[in-house]
# Entry
Amino acid sequence: MDRLQLMTVFVAVAEEQSFAGGARRLNMSPPAVTRAIAALEDRLGTKLLTRTTRYVRVTDAGQRYLEDARRIISEVDEADEAAAGINAEPRGQLAVTAPVLFGKLFVIPGIVDYLQRYPDMEISAVFLDRIVNLLEEGFDVGIRIGELPDSSMKAIRVGSIRRVVCASPAYLARHGAPEKPSDLANHLVVASSAVSPAIEWKFAEGLVVRVKPRLTVTSNDSAIAAVLLGMGVTRLLSYQIASYQASGQLQTILSEFEPEPLPIHVIHREGRYASAKVRSFVDLMVAKLRSDQALKSTK
# Structure
Protein backbone atom coordinates (compact mmCIF):
# COMPACT_ATOMS: atom_id res chain seq x y z
CA MET A 1 0.00 0.00 0.00
CA ASP A 2 1.11 3.56 -0.56
CA ARG A 3 1.32 6.04 2.30
CA LEU A 4 -2.12 7.57 1.69
CA GLN A 5 -3.76 4.13 1.75
CA LEU A 6 -1.99 3.33 5.03
CA MET A 7 -3.25 6.61 6.50
CA THR A 8 -6.79 5.77 5.39
CA VAL A 9 -6.64 2.38 7.11
CA PHE A 10 -5.27 3.95 10.30
CA VAL A 11 -8.03 6.60 10.40
CA ALA A 12 -10.71 3.94 9.94
CA VAL A 13 -9.34 1.74 12.74
CA ALA A 14 -8.85 4.70 15.09
CA GLU A 15 -12.36 6.05 14.52
CA GLU A 16 -14.00 2.63 14.81
CA GLN A 17 -11.75 1.75 17.79
CA SER A 18 -11.58 -1.70 16.26
CA PHE A 19 -9.56 -3.53 13.63
CA ALA A 20 -12.67 -5.45 12.62
CA GLY A 21 -14.71 -2.25 12.43
CA GLY A 22 -12.06 -0.57 10.30
CA ALA A 23 -11.98 -3.60 8.02
CA ARG A 24 -15.76 -3.49 7.57
CA ARG A 25 -15.73 0.20 6.80
CA LEU A 26 -13.06 -0.23 4.10
CA ASN A 27 -14.34 -3.59 2.84
CA MET A 28 -10.98 -5.20 3.64
CA SER A 29 -10.07 -8.39 5.46
CA PRO A 30 -9.01 -8.01 9.14
CA PRO A 31 -5.58 -9.56 8.46
CA ALA A 32 -4.96 -7.00 5.67
CA VAL A 33 -5.87 -4.18 8.06
CA THR A 34 -3.56 -5.58 10.74
CA ARG A 35 -0.68 -5.79 8.25
CA ALA A 36 -1.32 -2.21 7.08
CA ILE A 37 -1.19 -0.81 10.62
CA ALA A 38 1.99 -2.77 11.35
CA ALA A 39 3.58 -1.45 8.15
CA LEU A 40 2.64 2.13 9.02
CA GLU A 41 4.04 1.85 12.55
CA ASP A 42 7.25 0.31 11.16
CA ARG A 43 7.56 3.15 8.65
CA LEU A 44 7.08 5.79 11.35
CA GLY A 45 9.07 3.99 14.03
CA THR A 46 6.42 4.59 16.69
CA LYS A 47 3.35 2.90 18.10
CA LEU A 48 0.10 4.52 16.99
CA LEU A 49 -2.44 2.16 18.58
CA THR A 50 -2.73 0.36 21.90
CA ARG A 51 -4.43 -3.01 21.50
CA THR A 52 -6.05 -5.23 24.12
CA THR A 53 -8.54 -8.07 23.78
CA ARG A 54 -11.34 -5.59 24.51
CA TYR A 55 -10.50 -2.36 22.69
CA VAL A 56 -8.17 -0.38 20.46
CA ARG A 57 -7.07 3.12 21.49
CA VAL A 58 -4.74 5.65 19.88
CA THR A 59 -1.53 6.55 21.69
CA ASP A 60 -0.48 10.16 22.25
CA ALA A 61 1.63 9.98 19.08
CA GLY A 62 -1.28 8.28 17.34
CA GLN A 63 -3.67 11.09 18.29
CA ARG A 64 -1.41 13.73 16.74
CA TYR A 65 -0.94 11.58 13.64
CA LEU A 66 -4.71 10.97 13.42
CA GLU A 67 -5.42 14.71 13.24
CA ASP A 68 -2.80 15.21 10.53
CA ALA A 69 -3.97 12.14 8.59
CA ARG A 70 -7.59 13.35 8.59
CA ARG A 71 -6.50 16.72 7.28
CA ILE A 72 -4.29 15.24 4.56
CA ILE A 73 -6.97 12.78 3.38
CA SER A 74 -9.56 15.55 3.30
CA GLU A 75 -7.27 17.81 1.26
CA VAL A 76 -6.58 15.02 -1.23
CA ASP A 77 -10.33 14.42 -1.60
CA GLU A 78 -10.88 18.14 -2.17
CA ALA A 79 -8.09 18.24 -4.75
CA ASP A 80 -9.66 15.30 -6.58
CA GLU A 81 -13.03 17.03 -6.64
CA ALA A 82 -11.49 20.28 -7.86
CA ALA A 83 -9.65 18.46 -10.63
CA ALA A 84 -12.89 16.76 -11.67
CA GLY A 85 -14.30 20.19 -12.44
CA ILE A 86 -15.41 23.16 -10.35
CA ASN A 87 -18.86 23.00 -11.93
CA ALA A 88 -19.31 19.29 -11.22
CA GLU A 89 -22.66 18.29 -9.75
CA PRO A 90 -22.33 17.68 -5.98
CA ARG A 91 -22.30 14.00 -5.14
CA GLY A 92 -21.36 11.89 -2.15
CA GLN A 93 -21.91 12.28 1.58
CA LEU A 94 -21.96 15.31 3.86
CA ALA A 95 -21.94 15.40 7.68
CA VAL A 96 -23.62 18.42 9.29
CA THR A 97 -24.05 19.48 12.91
CA ALA A 98 -26.00 22.22 14.72
CA PRO A 99 -27.68 22.90 18.08
CA VAL A 100 -30.75 20.72 18.64
CA LEU A 101 -33.65 23.18 18.33
CA PHE A 102 -31.84 25.32 15.78
CA GLY A 103 -31.30 22.22 13.68
CA LYS A 104 -34.97 21.32 13.83
CA LEU A 105 -36.23 24.80 12.98
CA PHE A 106 -33.68 26.06 10.46
CA VAL A 107 -31.20 23.41 9.30
CA ILE A 108 -33.63 20.59 8.43
CA PRO A 109 -35.57 22.80 5.94
CA GLY A 110 -32.26 23.71 4.30
CA ILE A 111 -31.17 20.07 4.16
CA VAL A 112 -34.45 19.01 2.55
CA ASP A 113 -34.11 21.78 -0.04
CA TYR A 114 -30.50 20.76 -0.73
CA LEU A 115 -31.30 17.06 -1.15
CA GLN A 116 -34.14 17.87 -3.51
CA ARG A 117 -31.78 19.95 -5.64
CA TYR A 118 -28.94 17.40 -5.65
CA PRO A 119 -30.22 13.81 -5.93
CA ASP A 120 -26.70 12.30 -5.80
CA MET A 121 -26.06 13.68 -2.28
CA GLU A 122 -26.61 12.05 1.12
CA ILE A 123 -26.50 13.97 4.41
CA SER A 124 -25.97 12.82 7.98
CA ALA A 125 -27.23 15.50 10.41
CA VAL A 126 -26.31 15.37 14.11
CA PHE A 127 -27.89 17.97 16.39
CA LEU A 128 -26.16 18.52 19.75
CA ASP A 129 -26.32 21.27 22.37
CA ARG A 130 -22.55 21.37 22.88
CA ILE A 131 -19.48 22.68 21.10
CA VAL A 132 -18.52 20.22 18.36
CA ASN A 133 -15.00 19.94 16.95
CA LEU A 134 -15.65 19.47 13.24
CA LEU A 135 -12.27 17.97 12.39
CA GLU A 136 -12.00 15.58 15.34
CA GLU A 137 -15.62 14.39 15.08
CA GLY A 138 -15.75 14.09 11.31
CA PHE A 139 -18.19 16.86 10.35
CA ASP A 140 -18.00 18.86 7.14
CA VAL A 141 -20.22 21.81 8.11
CA GLY A 142 -21.48 23.17 11.42
CA ILE A 143 -23.73 25.94 12.70
CA ARG A 144 -22.30 27.73 15.75
CA ILE A 145 -24.12 30.16 18.05
CA GLY A 146 -21.90 32.45 20.11
CA GLU A 147 -18.46 34.01 19.80
CA LEU A 148 -15.95 31.84 17.96
CA PRO A 149 -12.52 31.01 19.36
CA ASP A 150 -9.54 31.37 17.08
CA SER A 151 -9.44 28.33 14.83
CA SER A 152 -8.59 27.08 11.37
CA MET A 153 -12.28 27.01 10.47
CA LYS A 154 -13.78 29.19 7.77
CA ALA A 155 -16.65 31.10 9.43
CA ILE A 156 -19.44 32.98 7.65
CA ARG A 157 -21.70 35.14 9.82
CA VAL A 158 -25.37 34.70 8.94
CA GLY A 159 -27.23 36.49 11.73
CA SER A 160 -27.52 37.03 15.45
CA ILE A 161 -29.94 36.21 18.21
CA ARG A 162 -30.75 37.53 21.69
CA ARG A 163 -30.96 35.93 25.10
CA VAL A 164 -34.48 36.76 26.25
CA VAL A 165 -36.60 36.32 29.35
CA CYS A 166 -40.21 35.46 28.55
CA ALA A 167 -43.52 34.34 30.04
CA SER A 168 -47.10 33.80 28.94
CA PRO A 169 -49.58 36.71 29.04
CA ALA A 170 -51.70 34.71 31.51
CA TYR A 171 -48.78 34.36 33.96
CA LEU A 172 -47.90 38.05 33.69
CA ALA A 173 -51.54 39.02 34.25
CA ARG A 174 -51.58 37.01 37.50
CA HIS A 175 -48.13 37.88 38.83
CA GLY A 176 -47.15 41.11 37.10
CA ALA A 177 -44.01 41.65 35.00
CA PRO A 178 -40.63 42.08 36.71
CA GLU A 179 -39.23 45.55 36.19
CA LYS A 180 -35.57 44.69 36.84
CA PRO A 181 -33.58 41.44 36.97
CA SER A 182 -33.51 41.31 40.76
CA ASP A 183 -37.33 41.09 40.73
CA LEU A 184 -36.97 37.52 39.42
CA ALA A 185 -36.52 36.45 43.03
CA ASN A 186 -40.28 37.02 43.45
CA HIS A 187 -41.30 34.98 40.40
CA LEU A 188 -41.69 31.34 39.48
CA VAL A 189 -38.71 30.40 37.31
CA VAL A 190 -38.39 27.61 34.76
CA ALA A 191 -34.75 26.87 33.94
CA SER A 192 -33.42 24.88 31.03
CA SER A 193 -30.11 23.26 31.88
CA ALA A 194 -29.33 23.22 28.14
CA VAL A 195 -29.06 27.01 28.34
CA SER A 196 -27.79 27.71 31.86
CA PRO A 197 -26.54 24.72 33.88
CA ALA A 198 -25.26 27.04 36.64
CA ILE A 199 -28.74 28.68 36.96
CA GLU A 200 -27.10 32.08 36.70
CA TRP A 201 -28.61 34.52 34.24
CA LYS A 202 -26.31 37.20 32.85
CA PHE A 203 -27.68 40.58 31.86
CA ALA A 204 -26.25 43.80 30.43
CA GLU A 205 -23.28 45.57 32.00
CA GLY A 206 -22.04 42.43 33.72
CA LEU A 207 -25.07 41.96 35.95
CA VAL A 208 -25.48 38.35 37.07
CA VAL A 209 -28.62 37.12 38.82
CA ARG A 210 -28.70 33.72 40.50
CA VAL A 211 -32.20 32.30 40.15
CA LYS A 212 -33.81 29.48 42.11
CA PRO A 213 -36.01 27.56 39.68
CA ARG A 214 -39.30 26.01 40.67
CA LEU A 215 -38.86 23.74 37.65
CA THR A 216 -35.62 22.66 35.94
CA VAL A 217 -35.78 20.79 32.63
CA THR A 218 -33.12 19.36 30.34
CA SER A 219 -34.40 20.67 27.00
CA ASN A 220 -35.46 24.03 25.64
CA ASP A 221 -38.63 22.50 24.16
CA SER A 222 -39.71 21.45 27.66
CA ALA A 223 -39.07 24.92 29.09
CA ILE A 224 -41.19 26.45 26.33
CA ALA A 225 -43.99 23.96 26.98
CA ALA A 226 -43.99 24.82 30.69
CA VAL A 227 -44.16 28.59 30.26
CA LEU A 228 -46.85 28.27 27.59
CA LEU A 229 -48.93 26.60 30.32
CA GLY A 230 -48.34 29.57 32.63
CA MET A 231 -45.77 27.89 34.87
CA GLY A 232 -43.55 30.96 35.17
CA VAL A 233 -40.74 32.83 33.42
CA THR A 234 -37.83 31.31 31.55
CA ARG A 235 -34.78 32.40 29.61
CA LEU A 236 -34.11 31.18 26.10
CA LEU A 237 -32.74 32.37 22.78
CA SER A 238 -34.93 34.66 20.70
CA TYR A 239 -35.21 32.32 17.71
CA GLN A 240 -36.54 29.54 19.96
CA ILE A 241 -39.66 31.51 20.88
CA ALA A 242 -40.06 33.65 17.74
CA SER A 243 -43.19 31.86 16.51
CA TYR A 244 -44.83 31.95 19.97
CA GLN A 245 -44.00 35.62 20.36
CA ALA A 246 -45.46 36.40 16.94
CA SER A 247 -48.69 34.58 17.82
CA GLY A 248 -48.95 36.35 21.20
CA GLN A 249 -48.54 33.14 23.22
CA LEU A 250 -45.34 34.41 24.86
CA GLN A 251 -44.10 37.88 25.75
CA THR A 252 -40.51 38.98 26.33
CA ILE A 253 -39.74 40.91 29.50
CA LEU A 254 -36.69 42.78 30.85
CA SER A 255 -35.69 43.59 27.27
CA GLU A 256 -33.78 46.72 28.27
CA PHE A 257 -31.45 44.55 30.39
CA GLU A 258 -30.54 42.05 27.66
CA PRO A 259 -26.82 41.41 27.07
CA GLU A 260 -25.22 41.83 23.66
CA PRO A 261 -26.65 39.62 20.90
CA LEU A 262 -24.92 36.34 20.04
CA PRO A 263 -23.61 35.85 16.51
CA ILE A 264 -24.53 32.86 14.34
CA HIS A 265 -21.94 31.40 11.97
CA VAL A 266 -21.84 28.67 9.38
CA ILE A 267 -18.42 27.06 9.79
CA HIS A 268 -16.41 24.59 7.77
CA ARG A 269 -12.77 23.63 7.50
CA GLU A 270 -10.98 26.02 5.19
CA GLY A 271 -8.85 24.05 2.75
CA ARG A 272 -6.99 25.05 -0.37
CA TYR A 273 -9.81 23.65 -2.47
CA ALA A 274 -13.54 24.07 -1.99
CA SER A 275 -15.35 20.81 -2.68
CA ALA A 276 -18.52 21.09 -4.72
CA LYS A 277 -20.63 19.42 -2.05
CA VAL A 278 -19.41 21.65 0.80
CA ARG A 279 -19.45 24.83 -1.26
CA SER A 280 -22.98 24.25 -2.55
CA PHE A 281 -24.39 23.34 0.87
CA VAL A 282 -22.74 26.29 2.61
CA ASP A 283 -23.97 28.70 -0.08
CA LEU A 284 -27.55 27.42 0.30
CA MET A 285 -27.55 27.56 4.12
CA VAL A 286 -25.97 31.01 4.23
CA ALA A 287 -28.61 32.41 1.89
CA LYS A 288 -31.47 30.78 3.81
CA LEU A 289 -30.29 31.83 7.26
CA ARG A 290 -29.48 35.40 6.26
CA SER A 291 -32.98 35.85 4.86
CA ASP A 292 -34.76 34.61 8.02
CA GLN A 293 -36.18 37.42 10.16
CA ALA A 294 -36.01 35.26 13.30
CA LEU A 295 -32.20 35.43 13.12
CA LYS A 296 -31.99 39.20 13.20
CA SER A 297 -31.39 40.66 16.66
CA THR A 298 -34.21 43.21 16.71
CA LYS A 299 -36.21 43.65 19.90
In short: The longest strand covers residues 153-161. The chain has three domains: 3-84, 92-152+269-292, 163-257. The chain is about 40% helix and 25% strand. The chain has a mean pLDDT of 88.
